[in-house]
Design a protein that fits this description.
By secondary structure, the protein is an alpha+beta fold. The chain has one domain: 2-Layer Sandwich (Alpha-Beta Plaits), CATH 3.30.70.141. The chain is built from seven helices and four strands. Bound molecules: adenosine-3',5'-cyclic-monophosphate (CMP).
Length: about 140
Amino acid sequence: ATNRTFTMIKPDAFEAGNSGAILKMIEEAGFKIVAMKATKLTAELAGKFYEVHKERPFYNDLCAYMSSGPIFAAILEKDNAVEDFRKLIGATNPADAAEGTIRKIFAKSIEANAVHGSDSDDNAAIEGNFFFNQAERVL
Ligand code: CMP
């Protein structure tokens, strides 16, 4: 079934001017962008977004990093969206990411790893709703 995932183009990729190239790869892989905005998180909002990681040692750095500059947030639609998008972006650590994946090409480190992708359908819905109300996306 056609379904949706949520992505962010993170501050490293935004700052480097790689957003257009990344969005081109996303569209060429068959994803439709059904909501998108440029925004900048506060540390508090980043903390809420990544609350599932709050016991992890990298949580404070991650929240500081994700609020360090502008990002793009987007909802993407495609058959098998969550799994196919995770394949397109590659492993969390760019050192482990497959050739041709977005993180292999654009990520600078495990933290500054260019893009976020939801890890489940439930989280895709939660994360999309965090950034977009009904008037801000294709229904
Ligand atoms: P993301 O898919 O956005 O979800 C959580 C983020 O934490 C992850 O991408 C990484 O950018 C970041 N992170 C930083 N350090 C680590 C780590 N050691 N293990 C996993 N994720 C990490």
